[in-house]
Description:
- Helices cover 39% and strands 16% of the residues.
- The protein contains ten helices and seven strands.
- It has a seven-stranded mixed beta sheet with strand order 1-2-3-4-5-6-7.
- Helix 8 (208-217) links the parallel strand 5 and strand 6.
- Helix 1 crosses helix 2 (44-53) and helix 5 packs across helix 6.
Amino acid sequence: MLIDLHTHSNASDGTDSPSELVAKARLRGLGVIALTDHDTIHGWNEAKSELERVEQKSDPLQLVLGAEVSCQNSDGISIHILALLFDGENKPLVAEMNKTRENRLTRMEKIIARLNGAGIEISMSEVHAQRQGEATLGRPHLADALIAKGYFQSRDEVFAALLHNRSKYYVSHYSPSPELAIRLIKEAGGVAVIAHPLASHRGRVIPLPSLDQMVNAGLDGIEVDHRDHSQEERVTLKNFARERNLIITGSSDYHGDGKLNQLAEFTTHPEQWEALRARANKDRVVRV
């Protein structure tokens, strides 16, 4: 069974609608797919509707509803926690994600001002034009606006040149500590998996002692197999996870067009998925 626990739709910064994402997962032959848009659950209902629209098959797709929660530690390092199988009506967790979403607006204005100061002409309205409805605003929308104006050919090019975490144009935004996010996820009945913690080319990596703090806060798993991890980093994380009885996951971090990531290019072993699912306080997997 192919299990992909980290994907995005245009409810945040992906290019596929939630229904298109579910349809592509079916075509790809996935058995389990998690929808984990940035700091939002706005795509959940559409994804569930698409799952239910197609009549049951002998090996139906299972949908895991989640979110990728933006966090930041005391050293200013950006950290992403995958929240899976939580109660979408839990007010404290949803409120914290909404607070982060709101702060992305002022952050984007600051990034645009820096780009304008360097002679790169782009406006907030042009960035908003790349969003779908109430999609979580993010740097990929800015990348799409720059592509639309002819500055670049792909999101990967934009991020490599201007929008990576070490760029002079980078601006952080409010986000909870990973420990707070993990606590809120657990209180909402879900499970917490840290996404791509040692992806060195994304920016500053997360020190292993910081990972231990998250383990103490209740972290359930580590996304080990990911395109942005080197083989050495994967070995380090696997050893770390096994020593601390953490779940080991693999995921695509699929965003649709504009990024190289493909659905199920990395996957989670079924035994690890079952162990992770058992840590939630309720079976919230959506089945046909």
